[in-house]
Design a protein that fits this description.
Layout: E1 19-24, H1 35-40, E2 44-50, H2 54-63, E3 68-70, H3 73-77, E4 84-87, H4 94-103, E5 108-110, H5 118-131, E6 135-137, H6 145-155, E7 162-170, H7 190-193, H8 197-213, E8 216-224, E9 235-242, E10 247-253, E11 260-267, E12 271-274, E13 282-286, E14 289-293, H9 303-313, H10 323-341
Helix pairs in contact: 4-5, 5-10, 8-10
């Protein structure tokens, strides 16, 4: 695993008052979560978008007042009026487009999970380091108010010394329907996603723990396909150890009868509980009782992280989610899935 969190950034002294963004893959995630953040952040503008379907690319550009659209990723990456590239395609093309953007000398912001495997992440990091361009990943919870509050509580010692973490994440199976036969989509196709929904959702949960408690150094994991609804695994479970000595357990089940999203951080003087994917309050429990701490979610959840990228490109501060930090989440997920993947040619049909 890469242990450092800093990256070689030769853009450090290159000030670009307005960062002009281009999106490769302007699909659903770009409608509310990320796309508007690129043109609503200070000193930031969205000037070009790309989607393989030209009608959909043109429609996105029209609705979001974007000057140019493309149906070819290379053309957008090489547009001289685009300063930085946001890659919002499925994971199987993250490495390809990241390397192309790096070769074009442009900073890269890529969706999560960073890639299908840790090895692919390493190739992306190497390409950007060789080109001297920064690489960031859309683990935007690192700048959401909820998780900044959790970090603040931990730093203040609200629960004493941290001892353990438990993650429970359950979902009913998503079934195709006659009107939406592809409802499950690429996220459960290992050749595209790298695995199943664990990589798509579990990546956020593991990355934010890396941010809150530091890197994970050891993992023992199990995975299986119990429901037979699709090719990928539908349950992942196991234990992990942080470099600090904190121990953790997690179960991600995608064939449950109901839904549960809850993480608890246990300390010597209390615990902190939170949901990763909704706006429920953080719960702080101590000998004084349980206290709910409400938090406000921004309209465009990626905008706070995007602002840190724009600021870093203009020489002000650092973005907390780099390729190096994001690759650690991919390493952890690889360890959880290692035994399940053994003997499987996961990407045979790519």
């Amino acid at each position: 695993m890469q242990e450092r969190d800093t990256q070689d950034n030769r853009y450090e002294n290159r000030i670009m008052p307005t960062i002009r963004w281009g999106i490769v893959g302007c699909g659903d995630v770009c409608e509310v979560k990320s796309g508007p953040g690129l043109y609503k952040a200070e000193n930031s503008a969205l000037v070009a978008v790309m989607r393989r379907n030209p009608d959909l690319a043109a429609d996105y550009a029209r609705r979001h007042a974007v000057a140019r659209w493309y149906d070819d990723g290379d053309a957008l990456i090489n547009d001289p009026d685009v300063d930085a590239i946001y890659i919002a395609t499925p994971p199987n093309s993250h490495m390809e487009y990241t390397c192309k953007a790096a070769q074009a000398g442009k900073p890269v912001y890529v969706e999560k999970p960073m890639a299908r495997t840790f090895d692919e992440c390493q190739e992306m990091i190497a390409a950007c380091e060789a080109a001297g361009v920064p690489l960031w990943v859309a683990y935007y919870r690192r700048r959401l108010p909820k998780f900044l509050k959790v970090r603040e509580l931990l730093e203040k010692g609200a629960i004493g010394d941290v001892r353990s973490v438990s993650i429970q994440f359950y979902q009913p199976p998503v079934q195709p329907s006659p009107t939406h036969p592809d409802q499950r989509g690429w996220r459960v196709e290992p050749t595209i996603a790298g695995a199943g929904l664990f990589l798509d959702l579990g990546s956020h949960m593991l990355d934010i723990l890396d941010y809150l408690l530091g890197p994970i150094r050891r993992v023992e994991g199990f995975a299986a396909n119990q429901g037979g609804h699709y090719a990928a695994e539908d349950i992942v479970s196991g234990g992990f150890e942080f470099e600090s000595g904190v121990l953790g357990t997690g179960t991600w089940l995608f064939t449950s009868f109901d839904s549960l999203d809850w993480t608890e951080i246990e300390g010597t003087e209390g615990r902190i509980g939170y949901a990763c994917f909704d706006t429920r309050p953080v719960v702080l429990t101590t000998t004084a009782g349980a206290q709910e701490i409400p938090v406000v979610q921004p309209a465009h959840v990626q905008q706070p992280l995007i602002q840190t990228i724009v600021d870093e490109l203009n020489g002000r501060g650092r973005c907390p989610s780099t390729g190096i930090s994001a690759a650690r989440a991919s390493w952890v997920m690889d360890q959880f899935l290692a035994a399940y993947r053994q003997g499987k040619d996961c990407f045979a049909r790519q």
